[in-house]
Design a protein that fits this description.
Elements: E1 5-11, E2 14-22, E3 34-35, E4 40-41, E5 62-65, E6 71-74, H1 76-82, E7 89-97, E8 106-114, H2 119-132, E9 134-142, E10 145-154, E11 157-163, H3 185-197, H4 210-224, H5 246-258
Parallel strand pairs: 1-7
Antiparallel strand pairs: 1-2, 2-8, 3-4, 5-6, 7-9, 8-11, 9-10, 10-11
Helix pairs in contact: 3-5
Amino acid sequence: MKAIWKGSISFGLVNIPIKLYSGATAHRIDLDMIRQKDKCPIQYVRVCKKDGKEVPWDDIAKGYRKENGDYVILDKSDFAAIAPEKTQTVDIFEFVKEEEIPPQYLEKPYITEPAKEAKKVYALLRDALKKSGKVGLCRFVMRTTQHLGILKVEEDAILLIQIRFNDELRDTGEVNLPSDIKISKKELDMATSIIEQLTGKFEPEKYKDTYKEELVKMIKKKAAAKKGEKPAPVKRRKKTTDKDDLLEQLKASLAAVKS
């Protein structure tokens, strides 16, 4: 596994040299855009909307569009002037209880690894965090962008979890949510029973991303199929509608769970 960042964790007056590794991988298969009739790959070009001509990279600038349609041009010196100070430090500035952080703030996990000479100090911070039951709120700069994060213990590792700033989250009041809907006691009891029947312990290793597996199977099947042959269509589950009786759906769901 290749380190994506090197620096240190700042804990009071103590610095802990670390390497940072991505804590997640994407389940993604690269698909090319092609012309269907002859499988010719598609090339994307930068084209001016006014004259339709291709624009070379040297002639391209970044601009902010104003309400009147005009643009404010920003160059490299403008971005450099406002860029956060480029440090190689994860600065802990506060400790909080992890349960105080709503899940919608959590964004991206990283694994920290101490340098050989910092293993004892790393273990000290890890054990202190574990004993306190708290996580360290921190700031760090990666690729010229400042991020907020928490340092938390997971088994023998200190994880750095990038979290979102408050103004990045949308207010739930922006969407239409049900407020004056009447739910009968029978419907609520049955829905609660389904929840109780399906309640278990969270074991993440049991859950797999089946989409990638199915996509690979589909690609292999189509590659092996004779020209003009189409694979059998995938059966979809029947969708329920508002016209269907809610209580009957609940009864059927409960019966399916029990069986």
